[in-house]
Every structure is written in structure tokens, then in C-alpha cells.
Amino acid sequence: MMSETSSYLQIHPVDNVWVALKNLPGGTLIKHNDDVFELVTPVEAKHKFTISTLNTNDEIYMYGVLVGKASQPIARGAAITVNNVYHASTDFTLGERKTTWEKPDTEEFAKKTFMGYHRSNGEVGTANYWLVIPLVFCENRNVTVLKEALYTRLGFEKPKGYEQEVSDLIEMYKAGKTVEEILSAELQQSSPQQQSFKLFPNIDGVKFLNHELGCGGTRSDSDALCGLLAGYITHPNVAGATVLSLGCQHAQTDILRAEIQKRDPQFNKSLIVLEQQQMGTENKLMKEALRQTFAGLMQANQLQRSPAPLSKLCIGLECGGSDGFSGISANLALGYLSDVMVALGGSIILAEFPELCGVEQDLSDRCLNEPMAQRFMHLMRTYNAQAEAAGSGFYANPSPGNIRDGLITDAIKSAGAAKKGGTSPVTDVLDYPQKVTQPGLNLLCTPGSDVESTTAEVAAGANIVLFTTGLGTPTGNPIVPVIKLSTNTALLNRMPDIIDIDCGPIISGEETIQQTAHRILNYVIEVAGGNIKPKAVLLGQDDFIPWKRGVSL
Fold it and tell me: Which of 151, 248, 281, 483 is the most buried (most CB within 10 A)?
């Protein structure tokens, strides 16, 4: 239950710090129950202030959980900052199962469908792509050569931008303009020409997934890479793949094939695997890759969209560039949407384990059985221990941008981030790079790092990713639509080129969480059916970074 005014908010009844919804000057009167007190310091929007005097090491609560402790005495009505608060969270143990939940009303969406690509194993894609993948970084150049040969001629290249601006700069240079004149010149914005030609209209694109792994590191990293790539090859948004292997690397083709069979025992997509050391010259490798890839594209183009129930959606939940409004607007809306999707029989992925620090007890208690709860707790403890052994635990997760906009401890960030997962039971706990096999809420161990986590969620089967941001981030994915949701309207106005949906009306009181969630889900249905392309897709934001275990938070 939330108690609020138009300028500040108490998120949970036991919280002893509240959130400023707008910039509050010192002296602002705050009503607390039957009492009224003044702010003794200014508090910027998204930041928090105390409602009682705190002594050194006193506990600080938000969202009803421990999120920090006072590092020095803090007066009532003072802003909390990194200078007077340090990270703290509650320990967790194996508790009782708490799997009962109140299902939301799904009547509005019960009979809705989306137009998807149906695969032979029963999965449904929201897009239809062909992949070209290097099994080791040694093949990156050859993959790039294939891209240069195929991309433009097949009609998949994105419109080029800023060419006119460069031409203008060249002309000014030729005309003898000075550095000062060029720096002060107003460049006219060019309008890139959209390509009308597309040889294969039922294929959304050919995607080239260059990376820096496959050999030279640990065997566990190369094995995980094969699992990740298998997740992409077997993904419902993928029709087939061309894989280039050097031959001598750790990431062997038989490991990749075994990972593919693990994820899809009846795998029957087009899979072209070519090994350079066996074939000989680059010329021979390239010509064979071109012939077989073109033939595969001809077959993939025969598939067309047809109706599918919303239960065929697997939605990955992500946040990046988070701010102090994330946990009270966009993330709460996604939490309600998650519950709706679970009630409809769909799948939800909640990842970013460093950003679940402090809410482990709630999530482990919601696991369907004790072994699942123990698995989650083990993954959390092991991951944090590895990070601490490398000199940085979960406590170091908040970025300078997070801190600047009100997320001053990892536990504060986590308490808001976890709200994306809603209230339903946890039906499975997965370790990277495993695949989702159960409907409902799945917990997937990934870093908090935006691109690595999104990359992993897609490998796990997400065919839509919902990405909340308070500061703005352009992250996308090569094969899955990534929909960006702003936590505040100011961000939408500042960066409209990357934001798809604004959740700011929750902060202003113009919309309820439920209304925003319904608006988002209707948009998801249009994107899943190919009727709308999110900004990340239009921008060609094809971010792909495999996780090197133990390095990233």
C-alpha cells in the first residue's frame, strides 16, 4: 500500500526514508502520520530523505526491506547520500514456500493473439532472421567479409546517416574555413533514404554475431559460448544459421551441436557449419558459405506469419541506466504485466542477479520447491563471492549515473529492479546460458551489465525484451525486438529517438500502474506481430556480448 502526496512518496509502511517526486528545497514541510516536519536539506527529485533521526549504523528501509545503514548520524528530514549511507542487506535462509498469489484480471487479453512465425517444435517467433556466427574470434574477419558481400545486395542494410553532414564539413574544409568556423557551423540534418528493395520479404534480416571468445580463455568460457550460440541458433526468431569455425579452437563444433541437441532434441533448422582449416583457402570457404547461405535464405523465406496465443510469448525483463523512479513507475508496470502474462500461460525472465541483492529471501520463498530455492540462493552466494574475490562484490554494482539519480546502494537499486518480476511464484531457476522450459516466472543468472544480460535473456528464449531506463540507453539485440520504457517523461522528451513508451504518467498521477501495464502489453502485441518496429530495431542497435563468467557485475 502506498501513501503519497504530489511531491513525495512513502513506498512501504515500514520505510524510514521516502522518495522526492520533484525537487524539494530545504524547509519543505513533510506530513508524517499526524506529525509535520521540515526538510533540513534540499532533496532532488528521485532521491530519498529520512523521516526520523538516524544514528550511526541505524538501519535504512525502502520497499519494506533493508537497503543500507547510516555511516554517520543523519538528522530527520535530511537527504541520504553516499556520504552518510553505506550498502547493507538482510541475509537469507531457506524459508517456507510462499507460492500463493492474487492473479490479475486477464479478460482484456485472454483472446488476443499475435502474428508470429511458427516453428516445428511448437515455439513461435516474433521475427524471422538468419544468423552468421563465428565459432571463434579468428573467424570474425570472414564473417565481416560475408556481411559486406550479402547485406546491401539482399536489401537488409540500414539507411546510412550523417553522410551529408560529412560532405558539408569537407566542403567547408576545401573552402578554407578555420577550425573555429567549422566547430561553430550549423550542420544540416540529412534524411537517409530508406531501401525499398528486399529480395526475401519474409526474412527480417541476416545478423552477424561477431565476438571475442572461443579460444585462449578458460574451457568453461568456451563451453558457455557454445551454449549461448546454441540458444541463438535454436531461438524461435531464427530460421537457420551459418557457422564459421577455424578448427583448432576450444569451442569445437561437436560441443556446439551437443548444446543444440540439449535445447532442441528434434532440431531440424538449416545449419551450415564450415571449417576453414579443412576447406583450405579463404576463397573456397567464402564461396561455399555464400552458396549454402543463399540456399538457406530461399527456404527460410517460405515461412509466413500466422496467429499465435499470447502464451507463446517469452518476455525478458531488463533495466539499464536506472534512476530513482525506476522502482516506482516502469518497473512496477512491468511487474503487473509479468503477472498478467504468467496468468495467461506465458513465460517471464527476471535476470541481473547482482540487482536482486537484498530481495533474495522473497524470491527464494516464492520458488515452487525447496531444491529450486536452494539453487537460487547458491547462485547468488557463489556469484557474489566470485565478485568479491575479484575485488568487487554486489555492493559495487550501482554506476555513477545510478548514484547521481538516487540509487545510492545496490540494495536500493535491487529492491526497485526486482519489482519487474511481479508477485507470481518462481517456476524455475536457470544458470547462464540455460534455456527456459517452464511457463511462468523464471530467474536467470546473468550480470547486471545491460548488453550481457540482454544477450543472455535472448539465448534463454526471450522473443521480446522489455527494457526500462531512467537515464537513457540505446541497447538492442540482433534477433529480438527490445522495447524501451522511460521511467520519467523528461527522458522521453530528451531522448525520443530511443524511447518507445513513457511510464512517466505514473509519477504524475495521470495513469495507474495497471493502465500503463495494459498500454505496454498492447504495444508488445503489435511489435510481436511485426506491425511496429521499436526504436532499437529502427536504429539497427544489434548489441551482442557473451558473458565471461566472474568478470562482470
Answer: 483
Q: Is 93 exposed, middle or buried (0-12, 13-18, 19+ CB in 10 A)?
A: exposed
Grid cell in block for residue 505: 504518467
HSE toward the beta carbon, residue 477, CA cutoff 13 A: 31
Distance CA 318, CA 212 (A): 24
Dmax (CA) for the chain in angstroms is 82
Alpha carbon distance 243, 292 (integer Å):
11
* Alpha carbon distance 320, 396 (integer Å): 15
Give pLDDT, residue 196: 62
Q: Is the pTM of this model over 0.90?
A: yes
Report the alpha-carbon distance of residue 476 to residue 499 in Å, rounded. Answer: 12
- pLDDT tens-digit profile of 262-291? 999 999 999 999 999 999 999 999 999 999
Q: From CA 123, how far away is CA 206, in angstroms rounded?
A: 20
Give every CB contact of residue 356 below 8 A, 6+ residues apart in sequence: 350, 363, 380, 414, 417, 418, 443
In the predicted model, what is the mean pLDDT of residues 489-505? Answer: 97
Q: What is the pLDDT of residues 109-155, one digit of tens each?
A: 999 999 999 999 999 999 999 999 999 999 999 999 999 999 888 98
